[in-house]
């Protein structure tokens, strides 16, 4: 498999963030002791200190771990829900398809962020609630794409042949439909990660994140509420902001590449159908 | 060479002469909005074990729809299909599975008949797995390999995916996949229409060799009259959803009775166009021996010895 330039850049950005997450496992002593609050970057504190005198670099590495984890798990849940609903709706069809399509349309028209704020406020800030909220709100696009593909596969002559051979419906779904949508589902998963990371950052920024496990969004939240922004302590809020942007860019570039590959790999069949 | 083979299978088919699959008064309508025009109009057809039957007709005559009904892939609007004298609509799950094992359908699009994500080996082994036939991996491998090699597929082909195979190779693969279950009847829907003539001849020869060896019955659906003439024992001529004439291939081709069959055999140069008409006989508009009654009521089946013609002109000749 030969990577093009965008995919290679995407993968290196993702690798860089992953290395950050691994570095966060280093013992505390490597990051120096707490210093004076709001001290600017220096050899002792590479990214300076925040309002409590904590090392910003350490918070950044720890926060990256949380942001990535929530992003990936949230994307996984939403992709799973989307793929399941898409395959059922597209392959089985009939009344089930009508019901599920309406559900997809309904969720697509819902404004995700406000709903998410309400849900997060109602469920309370915790790690799992954030994942569940992201998972439940980020699936409709995946579901719609998978549904379209599953419908296409349902009409393909090889499915008719399988029915003629006496294959069961579940067998066909698991052995033939899922493998044929897998490339699309994987691309959608990679493309959902930046969405989930951004949503998590947004929730945390307005104070609905889990305060016991600070993420990049939480760092931005504290920079805002505790006066770092007013003091112009740029080292407390520029690094987490940049990290969010870079991570999202990495996943988006890779995801777009994967989607393009998938489209090309199914082209002969799409042309004929 | 081919005629010798055919005589062999002909005598066998007469010796067995057991009706394997039969469609009785099969009608199929497809609805577009409120209109539901019939595509197959009251067709009766049967296939005995071990014989090769050709179903000829131009595109749009309902051949494929009839084939799919006979293979159990479509439900007829009315009428019934019998497999070994048992109606398939009233079969138990077990009997239906047996029917699906004994009757194999090969579609006219070999490039779309296999899962694009699966290796050829797995696609060909799949029917065995669905029906739980091979007892071990080794037995499965031997069965797949022996059937594939009959159709000229090597181990190297079996390791590829459909997109890395040529049209002829795909067609061989689809036939091997149907034959791996050792069926009693193969319904082949224009199996070679997408191929060049020389590949076509090779594959047909291989198919007939296998047919002879295993005593397989074949329903050969084609618009190629020459092919039908060479390979089949009996022939059904279909026009506009009706079987207009049937009988032994040699007799039908040497002395066609129905005006449509006659025009088909004459029309080497000018293909017929279907003329839409409101008369009861679909051929009324192009027929040169049409009568008054042709417009009023559809022609019934007239039996003349071992032939059947649906044309009012033969009303007085019947036995």
Description of the molecule:
The complex is a heterodimer of chains A (273) and B (319). The model of chain A has no long low-confidence stretch (mean pLDDT 85). Chain A has 12 helices and no strands. With 273 residues, chain A is mostly helical. In chain A, 46% of the residues are buried. In chain A, helix 2 (56-92) runs antiparallel to helix 8 (169-205) and helix 8 (169-205) packs parallel to helix 9. With 319 residues, chain B is an alpha/beta fold. Chain B has a domain at 2-112 and 184-254: Rossmann fold (3-Layer(aba) Sandwich). Chain B has helices spanning 2-16, 63-70, 93-102, 120-130, 137-150, 155-158, 167-179, 197-214, 225-231, 249-254, 259-266, 293-296, and strands at residues 19-29, 38-48, 52-56, 78-83, 86-87, 103-106, 185-189, 217-222, 234-239, 242-248, 302-304, 307-309. An 8-stranded mixed β-sheet of chain B has the order 6-7-8-3-9-10-12-11, sandwiched between helices. In chain B, strands 2-1-4-5 form a 4-stranded antiparallel β-sheet, covered by helices on one side. Chain B is globular and about 65 Å long. Residues 1-13 of chain B have low confidence and may be disordered. Chain A binds chain B through residues 156-158, 160-167, 171, 176, 179-180, 266, 268-269, 272-273, and chain B through 71-73, 96-97, 100-101, 104-105, 107, 109, 111-118, 126-127, 130-131, 163.
Secondary structure tally: strands of chain A: 0
Binned, the helix content of chain A reads: over 70%
The CATH topology of the domain at 2-112 and 184-254 in chain B: Rossmann fold
Number of strands of chain B: 12
Helix/strand-derived category of chain B reads: alpha/beta
Name given to the CATH homologous superfamily of chain A: MetI-like
| CATH topology name of chain A | MetI-like fold
Radius of gyration of chain A: 22 Å
Q: Uncertain spans of chain B, ≥5 residues at pLDDT below 50?
A: 1-13
Class derived from helix and strand content of chain A:
mainly alpha
Q: Overall 3D geometry of chain A?
A: elongated
Instruction: Give the overall form of chain B.
Output: globular
Radius of gyration of chain B: 20 Å
CATH first level of chain A: which class? Mainly Alpha
Helix segment count of chain B? 12
Provide the CATH architecture of chain A: Orthogonal Bundle
